[in-house]
Amino acid sequence: MDYLLEMSRIIDGAVKGDRAKVLAYVEQLARKLREVGETAAANRLVKTSQGNKASEVSTAETMASPRLPVDSESRLALADEEWVSIGDVVIILDRSSQMKVEEFIRYIKAADQLLASQVGIAPSMLIYGPPGVGKTELARYIAAELKLPLVTGRSDSLISSFLGSTAKNLRTLFEHAKSRPCVLFLDELDSVAKLRDDQHELGELKRVVVSLLQNIDALNNQIVLLAATNHHHLLDPAVWRRFSYKLEIGLPDIEAREHLFKLYLNGYKANAKDIKDFALLSEQTTGADIRQICESAIRAAVLEGRDTVMPLRVFREIIACRLGSKADFTKDDPRNIESVRNLNPRVLTLKRLAALFQSSEPTISRRLSPGEKPDGKRKKIANQSRNSAGSRPKARSSRRRTS
Q1: Pairing relation of β-strands 224-229 and 124-128?
Q2: Are 127 and 228 in contact (CB under 8 A)?
């Protein structure tokens, strides 16, 4: 049965006397009706819920967001809200992760059919991995695909120095999320969900974990819950069990990095060979790193009045990202050149190294260790060694004949 989820939420809000919840889900139901061409039914539904005689109610008016909750002490907002349109955010994941995300979205979109079949739903996902791999972007992507606002809990205002206030803030945030259609996103989950047997944590923070677990349990599958952490090993095991889907996002592989460079250099395109070399050289970088690299190269192109990026600038940005303060292109001493070329000798040829250090190929060749001499010179040295080795035995045999 279509729209069963919205209808059940409306009834639940009406039974509990929660007018805000009723209006929020009526608005969502009206939006879905408009999407399938049932504009008159949508307008009638909204007009009935609001109790006015207006004949037309715009989508913008009906979808006005309720006020976000605030901390009672500091009066700071406990969350940020964002509406993300489909196409505004692009995620690039490996095939396995992409399939898992698509399954999660299909699962939530099939909520009406699942409920009609008396199958419970648990729309929650825990996303974990190193910083910069796209966990927040994935949350935005999911919200866009579900056509729901993304309500992101703010750790800086959720966590309070006042005894008991953090648990109270968590409950306030969850109650707000339950009162309306939305995706609740708990970023930096480890800040409120650490292991309870950690001896370095105070009792107050351990009670916060209990409060978090109770609030998740009280959701009763009424909202889509997403959470992300850079430190999944710090999470309490009971928190792990509350999420029906768990997704680890690692560093992008070479194929993903190539897609990322194409995406972020769009409009300032480099040629295909350079893009492939960028991807090869940018091993061990994150999606956020690649975005910063591309933006820096584009910024330089704009300031120099060019409509394409300079590949050399991109290479320098990648090297600087990977080596940090060790990347100094003003010093062509052997150790510095070695550290740069060791990132990827296949990409960083003598010609590119000479351009990077604003030097000549012979100079770069002299700076490198003997094992890194150009192929031609290695062959010449090898031939000299063989000739020398071959002449010595002849000299010895000559001496024997003389004696």
Answers
A1: parallel
A2: yes
Query: Is 381 domain-assigned?
Result: no
Assess if residue 403 is contained within a domain: no
Q: Which domain holds residue 364?
A: 254-375
Q: How far apart are the first and last CA of the chain?
A: 110
Q: How many residues does the chain have?
A: 403
> For residues 373 and 70, what is the distance between their CA atoms, to the nearest angstrom?
65
Q: How far apart are CA 253 and CA 97, in angstroms?
A: 13
For 108-152, how does the pLDDT look when each residue is reduced to its tens digit (9 = 90+)? 888 777 767 666 677 899 999 999 999 999 999 999 999 999 999
Distance, CA of 244 to CA of 104 (rounded, Å): 10
Q: Are residues 218 and 315 in the same domain?
A: no
CA distances from 247 to 110, 120, 154, 240, 314 (A): 20, 21, 22, 11, 31
Q: Which residues contact 158 (CB under 8 A, 6 or more apart)?
A: 71, 78, 166, 169, 170, 173, 191, 192
Using the 3D structure, point to which of 18, 43, 64 is the last residue of a domain: 64
Asked if 33 and 49 count as a contact pair (C-beta separation under 8 A), the reply is: no
The structure tokens 């923070």 sit at: 205
- CA nearest 49: which of 75, 16, 10, 78? 10
Residues 368 and 259 in one domain: yes
Domain termination residue (choose one: 205, 221, 248): 248
- 243 and 144: one domain? yes
Predicted TM-score of the model (pTM): 0.76
Query: Rg of the chain's alpha carbons, rounded to an integer?
Result: 30
Are 21 and 143 members of one domain?
no
Our count of domains for the chain comes to 3
**CA-wise closest residue to 81 among 14, 153, 186:** 153
